Amino acid sequence: MTAPGHSPLTTVEDNDTTPPLEGEHIVVVGGGMTGHRFVSRLRAQDPEGTWTLTMIGEEPQQPYDRVHLSNWFSSRNADLLTLDPTVWDDPRITLVTGDAVTALDRDAQTVTTASGTVHAYDRLVLATGSWAWSPRAEGNDLPGTFSYRTIDDVEKMAEWVTLRSQKVGRPLRGVVVGGGVLGLEAAAALKNMEVDTTVVEFADRLMAVQLDQGGGEMLRLLIEDLGIGVRTGVGAARFSPAADGAMGTAHLTDDSELPADIVVFSTGIRPRDKVAREAGLAIGERGGVVVGDSCQTSDDAIWAVGECASFNGVCAGLVAPGNDMADVVVDRFLGGKRTHERGVEGTKLKGVGVEAAAFGDVNGITPGALDVTFIDPFHRQYRKLVMSDDAKTLLGGVFIGDIELYSSLRPLVGRELGADPSALIAPAGAGAMPDTELPDDAVVCSCNNVAAGTIRTAVNEQGCHTIGQIKECTKAGTVCGSCVPLLTKILNKELEKSGITVSKGLCEHFAHSRAELFKLVEEGGQQTFSEVVAAFGTGRGCAACRPVVASILSTLGAITGKRHNPVGRQLGSLQDTNDFVMANIQKDGTYSVIPAMPAGEVTPEGLMVIAQVAQDYGLYVKLNGAQRIGMFGARLEQLPEIWKRLVDAGFQSGHAYGKSLRMVKACLGTNWCRFGVQDSTTMAVALEKRYRGLRSPHKLKISVSGCARECAEAQAKDVGVIATTKGWNLYVGGNGGAQPAHGKLLVEDLDDTNLVKCIDRFLMLYVREADKLQRTARWVEEFPGGIEELRRIIVDDSLGIGEQLEESMQKHADSYVDEWAEAVYDPERRAKFVSFVNAPEKSDPGLRYVLERGQARPAAEGETETYPTPLAARQHAMATPGTAEPSGYDPTQKS
């Protein structure tokens, strides 16, 4: 007998005459990545269509990136995982969250949600995904058991770890059941929360679906090196509670036991096909809604995509095939005849701290397949290529410990390799890909199904000459990012073939990039701009190159013992206005004064000095995001006077005006906070004193958080430091602003000394090699080999330059002199701070100010009650009762 909704069909008949969409309503069931892909692609490819669409998701969040779910533990911010939210700005599209679809009426063409809402459809797209399966073992529902699938899962895991550890008064013990990709990510997440973790895998190796035996064994060594226990060839038999009824012990199938305060199940997924099954749609033998190569189901009005769809009897568990299915349905809806095909799938381990990747026939089951293997147990590296019987065609590959070849080789599966496979994976040749071109139909980005030919078209016909432009145009490299090195190779090759020279020069006066010029000046010993331009450039320079050269000379002067004040006599004329006057010019022509406050610390005496200065000069006072106090409205001639009072009180320049260190932000840490595990404030003060005044390609921001709660937002900074019970985790390449970037974990559990060493190396390498005006985020993204190569250079000292970089930074720190103090006590410098040479005490008569919330600000056009100076406005406020309102008054009312 056939179960309700079940069908022995493995394929369905495809309807090649899909009618047009005009005026139809589409309902998408499921709020995951594949559903979002379908909606965003339909919107992009049919911007003028008259259709409407409703997407219904069970989770309360907008669709988010499950691929990088583990990133939640480092940021504790679910918003960072949200997929492109601009999709929902389209008036044709409605997003419903937190309301699961519970019933499908195919005859009425409606779906009903848990809230009782009925949605009618003309076309239905099922994108319900999968659910996390767990073994039917006794005690699998005890308090302290979790899946690892959704934001809700990870939030509850983190909450349990915090509360349970407080209750039991000791570090927790955890067991992860399942040693696949998600299981290892879950284990790493527990480990990072200071849980003593063991992975239990029923198969004889980790990542048994993706790796061969040798790769699995090498991965085991790497995982154990992280301090995570591994038990393979054994399963979970049952679980027993502790005295209070919560999870206490995991009993394994070999009769051994593991103490377990928390258990995470990651034992596989099953397609979510319940609604489809109950509605009578054809269901595969192993579950999943049966679809053909058009992704249409057994009902002509219903399509299924992603993990809920059974294609040729298989439900895919990866992003790439789900995205391709979504693209196929969009194409069909718009009159195309595209079909879905399963390509060679690849897997890359993420968020664990070890490198592992594989693709194709890793076990060599193809008749006549040959294995070419390199094993280095000492360095924990395993590389294997599976070749055809004539050793020419690539069939598969496994890479553990070093995955540099993965992104370049995966697109070549099924094609001739064009090189000796043994030479390719041997230590001397590892990473040296043959200089052959990928065919146009070779898939470069499997996540978004982007072929090499599409990349070439973007470069040659659409003018995409940077990786950022290629990402924007093709979406390649925007999901997992593993294909970016290959994108770069294709881009460079196409530009070279087209005879297009993308200049790396600073400007028309210098053909060299900033990094090249830095090295030339370092070797040549030039001391002035004139000497630099005479040796390496032409002309008299411009606003683009002159500040860059000044920055290079300043940095090199500090680290070679020939220090130049970047805004002094020799270099000052090269700077723009802000650097030259050591203050940021404001909209009214006045300037800001922002003294340094390492870690946001300031004494009551210091506050009184700042308050008195602000009162005496009528300055507007505001706290900024760098944990500093900013004073605004100072005239040019007032700056030295203000600086002197601040310098005499112990303050120094905060360098808020320069391409240099802007701040080192910190939380309270162990000094005051009950959650702190390290003294973040003292560390932040030490870091600011070490790196203050460092001239760099762009501004630098550093933060130090005293625990995993991350109050200092360290992962949104160029250098982020987060305390652990064992030391410090170091993140690099983060920033906020218009192009926010999440910092990347460089190294874990550093002591104080090694933390400073790694930051020294990172910052000095950045200063030497980054392009002009390039933030660390973009530099890290575009660094050849990415964060992995940076880790080798900085942490492992693979180039042998670590001590040199540290020595350079030490010389910088030793030679630091406060720029404000130099200007205050240099009569020649001080004499230049005048607004009107013939009347140095006069202010600009065109400036007018108004009172707002008790402070002076520049007057806007049409405001009549104005004052000639900020001080005059403040004096009026102090003399007139009721005008200096407290800061809590109605912000919609102006004085």
TrEMBL record:
It holds the Pfam family Fer2_BFD. Keywords: 2Fe-2S, 4Fe-4S, FAD, Flavoprotein, Heme, Iron, Iron-sulfur, Metal-binding, Nitrate assimilation, Oxidoreductase, Thioether bond. Residues 1-22, 852-895 are annotated as: Disordered. Residues 443-492 form the BFD-like [2Fe-2S]-binding domain. [4Fe-4S] cluster binds at C667, C673, C707, C711. Its cofactor is FAD; [4Fe-4S] cluster; siroheme; [2Fe-2S] cluster. Binds 1 [4Fe-4S] cluster per subunit. Binds 1 siroheme per subunit. One of its GO terms (molecular function) is 4 iron, 4 sulfur cluster binding. Residues 586-647 form the Nitrite/Sulfite reductase ferredoxin-like domain. One of its GO terms (biological process) is energy derivation by oxidation of organic compounds. Residues 658-794 form the Nitrite/sulphite reductase 4Fe-4S domain. Siroheme binds at C711. Its EC number is 1.8.7.1. Pathway: Nitrogen metabolism; nitrate reduction (assimilation). InterPro entries: BFD-like_2Fe2S-bd_dom, BFD-like_2Fe2S-bd_dom_sf, FAD/NAD-bd_sf, FAD/NAD-binding_dom, NasD-like, NiRdtase/SiRdtase_haem-b_fer, Nit/Sulf_reduc_fer-like_dom_sf, Nitri_red_NirB. It catalyses: hydrogen sulfide + 6 oxidized [2Fe-2S]-[ferredoxin] + 3 H2O = sulfite + 6 reduced [2Fe-2S]-[ferredoxin] + 7 H(+). It comes from the Bacteria. Residues 25-309 form the FAD/NAD(P)-binding domain. Catalyzes the reduction of sulfite to sulfide, a step in the biosynthesis of sulfur-containing amino acids and cofactors. Belongs to the nitrite and sulfite reductase 4Fe-4S domain family. This is assimilatory sulfite reductase (ferredoxin). It comes from Brachybacterium muris UCD-AY4.
